[in-house]
Amino acid sequence: MDKTKISDILKKKDKEKITMLTCYDYSFAKILDEAGVDIILVGDSLANVVLGMSETRKVSFGEMLNHTRAVAMGVERALVVADMPYVSYQKDPKECAYYAKKFIEAGAQAVKVEWFRDCAYVVKRLIKNKIPVMGHIGLTPQTVHLLGGYKVQGKDEESALNLIKQAKTLQDLGVFSIVLECIPYQLASLITEKLKIPTIGIGAGNKCDGQVLVLYDLLGLYKKIKPKFVRVYKDFYCEIKNTTLEFIKDVKKRKFPSRKESFSCSKEFSR
Q1: Could you say which of 67, 109, 164, 217 has the lowest number of CB atoms within 10 Å?
Q2: Alpha-carbon distance 140 to 125, whole Å?
Q3: What is the CATH number of the domain that holds 139?
C-alpha cells in the first residue's frame, strides 16, 4: 500500500486546504483526478444519488465494492477513500477488518467509518490490521435515526463536548483525518485547533483543514434534497436535460445520424 498519499494529506494541516469530492465511477474519477482534487471519496451517498435509495445504510457491500473498484481504475494521483457501508462494520463490528481489506484490495488506500457506539473498537481493529482510517463525526447519516433526523449536531454544550471527546478519541486511536458534518462553525474551528490531524468539513464552516461535497450536489445533478451547506457550481441537470432534448429532436427529424456519422460501402445495395 502506498502510504505517501496519506503522509501528504497529514502534511497539509495548517499549511494548505484539503479538497475532497465523492465519486462513484471511472469517468468522473479520471476527471477529478486530473483536476487535482486531493481526496476522492467513494461515498455511501451512492445509495441516494446513484441508486435512488432513501437511506445510505441500505447500500450493500457489493455495490460499494464495485464502485470503489471502478473509481480506483480512473485515479493515478489522488488518495482514494472508500466509505465503509453500514452492513460492513456496524451490523457486526467483528467483521470490519474482513470487509475493509476487500476495499483495499479493490484499490482504495483508506476507508472511512462513521462514529457509532462501537466505533472505537472498529477503528482499533482496522488500524491493528494496518488499514488507514478516516473518521466521521457530527451528523452521521448511517445512524441518523438515533440523532433525531437530519439536523445540526453539537449546538448545546453537552453535545459539543461529546463531539470534542469523539474527535480526540479517534485521533488517539490513529485515524489520519476526521470529517466534521453539520456542526456549528465555532465548534468545528475549536476541534480543528485541538487536533494534530486534518479535519474535513461538510456543513461545518471554513475553519476546517479541508472541505468535502457530494459531486452530484456540486454539479446540480441531484435535485431531491439541497442542504444549506451545498453550493451548486454549475447546474448540469439542466444542461444534460437540454442536450437530451436536442438529441430527441434530431432523431425525430432524421438529422442524426448524418452521412458523416454513418458508414458506407463502394456501391448501393440492390433491393
Answers
A1: 164
A2: 20
A3: 3.20.20.60
